[in-house]
């Protein structure tokens, strides 16, 4: 089709020979129809979109006051400790061993490990008093083949010595005063009794001295003799 002509064979008989052309008025009508169609299509698309839901949460920039710390869950692991466990344990091995002295061993070591580090026990050493399976502690002393030492007693009064035993018939005031539980007053009473009654013939006579009761007599008995 050229020049706006339509072949006669394709038109009805009453339209054959008719010349078709578009005037500016026709073009304006077509443009108006197209514009209305586009506007209607745009409105349909806008109506089909969901309406946005307003966000009522406050903006972080508008929140005032001190920040609130997040709650700690009971299952959260505790903070790691900054303390460093010791890597070496030092013990003193003494007695009947080949190399007595300070032994540096690992944490969790046993008495048997410390004994082996000291070269082992000497022949004939009695190990029955040792618990070889006991874990050692830092700074302890291990005595091998030695009898258990008695715990230290109370410190004696400075300037006074406690003799093992004194003779009741020759002891002086100072010697009697040095006996446990005897002061200068009781020591003088013992001397007065000896002056008045003569020599002690038995230790039991101490109970006749004023101030020497049954308990004090039992305390003094190991420290006096005739």
TrEMBL record:
Pfam families linked: HHH_3 (PF12836), SLBB (PF10531)
Biased composition annotated in UniProt, kind: Low complexity: 66-85
Single Gene Ontology MF annotation: DNA binding
GO cellular component, one term: type II protein secretion system complex
Region of interest: Disordered: 49-85
SUPFAM superfamilies, per database record: RuvA domain 2-like
Domain of life: Bacteria
The name this protein goes by in its record: Competence protein ComEA helix-hairpin-helix repeat protein
Native organism: Kribbella flavida (strain DSM 17836 / JCM 10339 / NBRC 14399)
């Amino acid at each position: 089709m050229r020049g706006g002509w339509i072949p006669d064979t394709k038109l009805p008989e009453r339209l054959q020979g008719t010349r078709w052309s578009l005037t500016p008025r026709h073009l304006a009508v077509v443009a108006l129809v197209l514009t209305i169609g586009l506007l209607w299509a745009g409105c349909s698309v806008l109506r089909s979109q969901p309406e946005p839901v307003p966000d009522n949460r406050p903006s972080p920039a508008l929140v005032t006051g001190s920040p609130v710390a997040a709650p700690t869950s009971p299952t959260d692991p505790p903070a790691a400790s900054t303390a460093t466990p010791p890597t070496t344990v030092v013990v003193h091995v003494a007695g009947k061993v080949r190399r007595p002295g300070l032994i540096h061993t690992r944490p969790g070591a046993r008495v048997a490990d410390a004994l082996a580090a000291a070269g082992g026990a000497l022949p004939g050493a009695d190990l029955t008093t040792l618990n070889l399976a006991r874990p050692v502690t830092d700074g302890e002393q291990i005595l091998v083949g030695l009898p258990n030492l008695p715990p230290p007693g109370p410190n004696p009064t400075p300037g006074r010595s406690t003799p093992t035993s004194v003779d009741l018939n020759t002891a002086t005031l100072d010697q009697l005063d040095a006996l446990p539980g005897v002061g200068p007053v009781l020591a003088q009473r013992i001397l007065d009794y000896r002056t008045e009654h003569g020599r002690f013939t038995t230790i039991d006579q101490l109970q006749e001295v004023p101030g020497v009761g049954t308990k004090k007599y039992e305390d003094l008995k190991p420290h006096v003799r005739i």
